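Appendix B, record 7
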Amino acid sequence: MTSTRSLESMKEELLALLLQEEDDAPPPESIALADRRGLLSLSYSQQRVWFIDRFTGGGAAYNIPRAFEVQGRLDRAALERTLNEIVRRHEVLRTIFDMADGAPVQVIAPELRLAMPVTDISGLPPDERQARAKWLAQEEAQAPFDLQTGPLLRARLIVLGEDAYVFLLTFHHIVFDAWSMGVLVGEVAALYSAFVEGTVPLLPELALQYADFAHWQRQRLAGEVLQQQLDYWKTQLQGAPALLSLPTDRPRPAVQTHEGGMVPVVIPAHVAKGLHRISQQAQATLFMALAAAFNVLLSRYAGQDDICIGTPIANRQRAELEPLVGFFANTLALRTRVDAAQCFDELLAQVKAATLGAYTHQDLPFEQVVEHLAPERNTSHSPLVQVMFVLQNAPMGKLELPGLALRPMDIEHNVSPLDLTLTLVEAEDGLRGHVEYNTDLFDRATAERMAAHFGRLLAALVANPRAPLRELDMLAGGERQQLLVEWNSTAHAHAHEHAQTLHGLFEQQALHCPETEAVKFAGQSLTYRELNARANRLAHYLRGQGVGADSLVGVCVERSVEMVVGLLGILKAGGAY
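Structure tokens (predicted):
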């Protein structure tokens, strides 16, 4: 789900761009071990996810599923032993979340034995096994966790045939993040190899655990450190729009949902190389260039020039946190003002400054930023940020196990914690990734069109980086023909010239089938004749109140039969609603 930008990548950016001199900085204060005899608080990131889980009643929105196709002679006992050794090493994987004194607390089990169920589908016809395995993987990815009872990770092995398997791992985000996957891959490789070969694993014991980080984080973010971070974010985000008003295919639900879908994004190599060249000329990074272009796309779609997007960051600035599994990732809010008259270089300079400033003030958890800025809360959308951009480069070693060939398998997760998330990763043939979208808001075709527009926008700015932003084209030839020609063609005759208004067409239908049901809601219904009569009565009343051509009439009513009567009545009176 959430991805993270690597610590080393951020350090290189900061050093290369001369943001600050780290050589003169005093050595960081060490992280002290938390007293396990007392109550163990959650980290700020954990607390947000815990609250959302309680508020929504659970679900799979914060599941992190991974699947691997495995070929070769698998030692199941060694694999299960490997997983349990990792659980022993990392307290956070033995942690559940309970309440004490009215607040959530971490409860760490002294030991936990993780089972690895095996599902054998080798008896199915060969052409059915892969489809069945994908269905089982999706089912596993969608199964919710109980934060209060745990465990908050699952492992499952699917047997496809002799020496052919699918290995499934699922974590809850409250104990895991993208960086953790790199840690996990390294430990699985080291432990499984040792157990298969009968040798002693060489992994050193961990000096810290996640609970120590959570305790340190809460102790550290106080006083002058807290105030400095707060001052920056208040200045940066004060007055930011509460909602990025993207045009949706359906009305936004009153309570935010996390139903999601995913469409692929492919950026060809020549465009990726061009973006690298533009970035280098501006002493910026590929991430900054892509984020700037994404802001242009969002600005056009939303019709807004003030854009606020989120991006996840590893939040492991200290070396002693790098070998830990856990939810460290933080979200940075990047605010950009898009001026269509500017060229891309000017926008990129703005995004570069905002990104570097955010990196410098990344210690303050996003949850604290929201709490202190106190934006107006709305259950229909996330505060401050509803769209995320991710350039995935968290360190990920290659999972190589003796006698086995492993390949990642894609899983349809079907969740989207935000309205939209664009995720990209560099590949040999350019940039690849996906747009994750909320299916209660957007159709798949809309997400596909947005992905295509983004690709064409990138190609346009690479071809002409000095052009004003408004001149960068993102439409396909067919879309341009439709927009400029077909939708503006008024020369052809219509079959019902006398009824080219919505209410005129409705009146024709009322004459044609007056007793047919026209509208139905919550057990109440009206025929076309009844609806037309009620709308006429309202129209006469509105005309008596002065409503006519160029009049705007506000409508404030819940979805109902009366709402339809109101809309038709306003149109019949000659106004607009």
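Remarks on this record: The mean pLDDT is 88. The radius of gyration is 28 Å.
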